Amino acid sequence: MEGRLQTIEKRKAKWGYLFILPNLLGILIFTAGPVIFSLIISFTDWNLMRGFNFIGLENYFNLFEDEVFIKSLINTFYFALLTVPAGIILSLLFAALLNRKMKGIGIYRTVMFIPVVTSMVSVSLVWSMLYDTDFGLINSILNKIGLQSVGWLTNTKISMLSVAIMCIWKGLGYNMTIYLAGLQGIPNQLYEAASIDGATPFKKFMNITLPLLRPTTYFVLIMSTIGALQAFDQIYIMTGGGPADSTNTIVMYLYNNAFRYLKMGYASAMAYILFIIIFFLSAIQYKYSKTWSEE
Amino acid sequence: MLNKKIICTLISCVLLVSMLLTGCGKPAEVAKPEQKNEAQEQKQEEATLTMWIPGWETDAAKLFEEDAKEWKQKHPNVTVKVVPLTLDAYNQKVPATVAGGTNPDIALTDIGTMTVNLADKGKLLALDDYGVNEIKDKFYDGVWNTTMWKGKVYGLRITANNLGLFYNKELFDKAKVAYPNENWTWDDMEAAAKKLTNSTDRQYGLDLPVMANQGEWKTWMWMCFLWQNGGEYLNNERTKAVFNSQQGVEALEFWNRLSNADKAVPKEAPGAGIDRFLTGKVAMSISGPWMIRPWLQDPNMKGKLAVAPLPKKITNATQVGGEGLVVFSNTKYPKEAYEYVKHLTTDSEFMKKFYKSWITVPALKEFADFYKDDPMYGEPMKVFNEQMKIARTRQFVPQWGEITDILDRQLAETIYNNKSAKQALDEAAEKINKLLEAK
Q: End-to-end alpha-carbon separation of chain B, Å?
C-alpha cells in the first residue's frame, strides 16, 4: 500500500514538474542566465562587438572615480529618502481613513488604486504636462492665487522633488492596499478591551494598530526602498536625468552606459553595486524586523 | 485515468508551444541565417540579401520593396529581402544584433553617429575595394565625409539634411519685426527673439533644445553656433577637444543669455506631443527639412511657415545629417550588396521616386534643383539646398555618444546652474580629452 502511494505521488510530481516547466525554463533562460552572465561581464571590457578582455576589478574601481556615478548614487539615495518615508506615512494614513464602513468606500479605494495600475509611462507624461512652467496646471493654479511660477522640472534644486512627489502619488494605492489588509487582520476584541480600559483613539492607534502592523510595515519598507533605488522609467521620460544631472539616477546612468555608450562591462559593474546596496539594506531591515516582532 | 493523461499531455503541449511563440518574439528573424545557408546550398550562385529599414517611413518602405522586385527581374540571382522594422529602438537594435551575429546584410541607418562606432570595430564593410570612389563626385563633399572613417568609405548616403531657421510669419507681422534673411547675424536674431517674446501670452522668441535630452540634438545644434563663431570642436587629429576656446565660450554665453537674461528661449522640454512651433508658442525654431512636410501639412501653419538660413557671427555654418545604407562585414555576398547599395543611392530613376516620398535634401549634387518647381516644398527646400554648401561634418570618433553627453551636461551646468561658460567648457574638455586619450 505504502509503495503504491509513493509511485502515485511520484507520477503526480512528474506531471507537476511538467506543468511548471515552461515557466521554469523562462526563468532559467531569461533571468538566471543573464544574472550570471552580467556578473561575468562586469569583470570585462565587453562592448557588444569585440570579444571579452578580463580586466579584473577595474570597472569597479573606475566607478568610484566617476563623478557622474557618485552624483547619481547620491541622487538615488536622495530620491529614496524623499519617497519612502513620506510614502509609508501617507499610505498608512489613507489606509486608516479608508478602513471603515461607509457609503461609497469601494469608490474611494478604487480612486486611490487607479494610479497604481496606470502605466508609469503615461503617468510620467501627464505629470510632465502638469509641471510645465508656462502651460502646466500646477503653475496656473499658483498664479491664480497670486504666487510665482515654479520651474518644477527646470530648477535643478527642486527637479528631483517634483519627480518624487509624482512617485509618492503613484505608489500610494499599492502600499495603502497592503496596509488595509494588515489593518483588517487585527482582531477587533483588542480595540474593545482597550475601550473598556478607557483608551483614546490615538492611544489605541499607537499601542495596538502600529505594533501589530509591524510585519506589514516591514514589507512595505523593503518593497518601496527597492523600488526607489531602481527608479528609471519616470526619470527617463520626465527629465532624461537632467537638467545638469540633477535627476540622474543609478539605473538611468546604467542605461546610458549600456545602450548608448555600449560599455556593457562598466554598466554591469554598476548593476552589481546597486545589487550589493539593495542586498545590504534589505538585510539590515530584515534584522531589525526580527527584533521588532520579538518585542 | 487515460483521459486525464491525454488532457494533461495536450495542455502541456499547448503551454509549451505558446511559450515558444511568445517567448521568442520574432521567430522569423531568429531563423534568418539558417535560411540563408539553405538557400546557398541549394543553388550556389543564388545570393539573398537582407536589408533592414526603419519602418516609420512607410512610403519609402514600399518603394524599397518595389525596387527589390525590379532588381530581381534584372538580376535573377540576387534576392533582396526588405524588412521594415517599426521600432523606436531601431538604432539600438542594429548594434545589438551585430553582437549576436544576427545582423542583416544591409541596413539603412543614421550615418556617422552609429557607423563610425561599428566601422571602428570592424563590423562594416569598407566599400573602397568595390569601386566606391568612382562615384565620389556625385555627392556633396560634406555628405561624403560623413561616411568616412580612417580614410575608408563605410556607407553611402541616401538622404542629406542640415539645420535651418523656421519662422512663423504671422507672429513676426504681429510684433512688427522684419523677417530673417540670409544676412542675419546673432545680434539680429537676439533682437528679434526678444521682441517676439511676450510673457503675458507666454510666447517665446526662439526654441533651442537647452533642456537635457536623450541623444545628440542639443550638442548637434550648439556646434553650429560654435562654428559660426569660428570655433572648432575637436582638433584635426580628433585627439583633443578644442571647443573651450574664446569662440566656444561666446557661443555658450549667447545661448545662456537667450535663455536666462532675455528669457526668449523656453527652458522646459516641450511636453509630450506638444509642438511649440506649430501651436505658435515660439516664433522661431531651428530644425531640419524633415519638419517641412509635417509643418506645412498642418492647417495651423497654413501660409505662416517660412525658412531662413541659420544666422551668422563670423561665418555661416550648419550641420550635415541624414541617413545612408551600410553593408555589414559578415555578409556572404559583399559584391552583390555593394552593387545594390550603389543602385539605391545613385540610380536616377529610383532617386526621383524616393525624393518624392521622403522630403529631404538629396545627397546627390545632380538633384540640387529637384524641388525647385514644387509649389509646396520649393521655397523651403531652396534654403536647405543652398545651405549644403556651408554644411559641415561632425568629427566623429567611436566614443561619440559619451562625448556628447559630457558636453551636454556642462552646457546645462551653465544654463541651469549658473556655472561660468569658461569653467563649464574647460571641465567638459578635460573629461573628453581623458576619454580620447584612453582610446
A: 69
Q: Which stretches of B80-120 are DSSP H helices?
A: 90-100, 115-120
Q: At what angle do helices A159-184 and A214-229 cross, to 10 degrees?
A: 150
**A66 φψ region: left (φ > 0), alpha (ψ -120 to 50), beta (else):** beta
pLDDT digits (tens, 9 = 90+) for A253-272: 999 888 888 888 899 999 99
Q: Which residue of B lies nearest to A123 if distances are taken between CA atoms?
A: B272
pLDDT score for B2: 45
By the 8 A CB rule, do B155 and B127 touch? yes
Q: How far apart are CA A39 and CA A35, in angstroms?
A: 6
To the nearest whole Å, the CA of A250 is away from the closest chain B CA by 16
Using a 10 angstrom Cβ sphere, with 0-12 exposed, 13-18 middle and 19 or more buried, the burial of residue A251 is buried
- 0.95 exceeded by the pTM? no
The Cα–Cα gap between A237 and A131 comes to 13
Contact state of A245 with B409 under an 8 Å Cβ cutoff: yes
What does the alpha-carbon distance between residue A42 and residue A272 come to, in Å, rounded to a whole number? 8
Beta-strand (E) ranges in B288-360? 305-308, 318-319, 323-327
- Interface predicted TM-score (ipTM): 0.74
The residue length of chain B stands at 439
What is d(CA B235, CA B395) in angstroms, rounded to the nearest whole number?
9
Contact B163, B318 (CB under 8 A): yes
Q: Which residues of chain B have a CB within 8 Å of the CB of A134? A: 202, 266, 268, 281
CB-based contacts of B217: which residues, under 8 Å, 6+ apart?
B209
Mean pLDDT of B10-33: 44
Cell representation of residue B260: 536666462
pLDDT value for B4: 55
Q: State mean pLDDT over B54-63.
A: 78
Which set of grid coordinates corresponds to residue B270? 516641450
Residue B246 in grid coordinates? 574664446
Question: What DSSP line would sit under B204-215, residue for residue?
Answer: EEEE---S--SS
CA–CA distance, B395 with B377 (Å, rounded to integer):
31
* B166: its cell numbers: 523656421
- Compute the nearest-CA separation of A218 from chain B (Å): 35
3-state secondary structure of B50: strand
Contacting B residues, span 16-45, partner chain A, CB-CB under 8 Å = 16, 19, 23
B106 φ/ψ angles, rounded to the nearest 5 degrees: -130, 145
What is the full DSSP assignment across A171-204? HHHHHHHHHHHHHHTS-HHHHHHHHHTT--HHHH
Residue A253 identity: Y
Cell 509511485 sits on residue? A7
Q: What is the pLDDT, as a whole number, of residue A276? A: 92
User: Judged by CB atoms within 8 Å, which residues 55-84 of B form the interface with A?
Assistant: none
Across B225-256, b (16+ Cβ under 10 Å) vs e yields: bbbbbbbbbbeeeeeebbbbbebbbbbbebbb
* pLDDT computed for residue B22 by the predictor: 43
Which residues share a beta bridge with B166? B285, B307
B208 touches chain A (CB under 8 A): no
Q: Where are the beta strands (DSSP E) in B70-163?
A: 78-85, 106-110, 148-149, 152-153, 156-157, 159-160
d(CA B19, CA B27) in angstroms, rounded, equals 12
Q: Which residues of B63-86 are buried (b: 16+ CB within 10 A; e: fewer)?
A: bbbebbeebeeeeeebbbbbbbbe
B271:A262 CB<8 A: no
Nearest CB to B409 within list A153, A244, A259: A244
